[in-house]
Amino acid sequence: MNDVMPKKLHKKVAGVTDATWQSLVLESESPVLVEFWAPWCGPCRMIHPVIDELAKQYAGKLKCYKVNTDESPSVATRYGIRSIPTVMIFKSGEKKDAVIGAVPKSTLTTSIEKFL
């Protein structure tokens, strides 16, 4: 009787911490999208589903991670995060682009496409 409602495959975007930043983001072979967020941030909650969609859409071409700025403040400080959500794209260990605020998916897609 389980076939009434098909389960949606939902791949949660993994979190990155100060400790895993170097290996997961800077040393990644493929481009990486990172969302800087915090649990108390309303606009962050609005952009989470968009990031999840992008992670599925670009699976195999782009890695997507989230950084909780409350739990990993040193990464946020290093990249001068002043407002969240901020989405950054890294390639070959370098920050290539940053999009600040809860923006439409199309804005992020445009940014991603430049680095694939």
Report the major sheet.
5 strands, mixed
Name the average pLDDT: 91
**Percent range of helical residues:** 25-40%
Unreliable spans are: 1-10
Total of helices = 4
Question: What does this protein look like?
Answer:
By secondary structure, the chain is of the alpha/beta class. It has four helices and five strands; from the N terminus they run βαβαβαββα. It has a five-stranded mixed sheet with strand order 1-3-2-4-5. β2, α2 and β3 form a beta-alpha-beta unit. It is globular, with a radius of gyration of 14 Å. It starts with 13 loop residues before the first strand and ends with a helix. Belongs to the thioredoxin family. It comes from Eucalyptus grandis (Flooded gum). This is Thioredoxin.
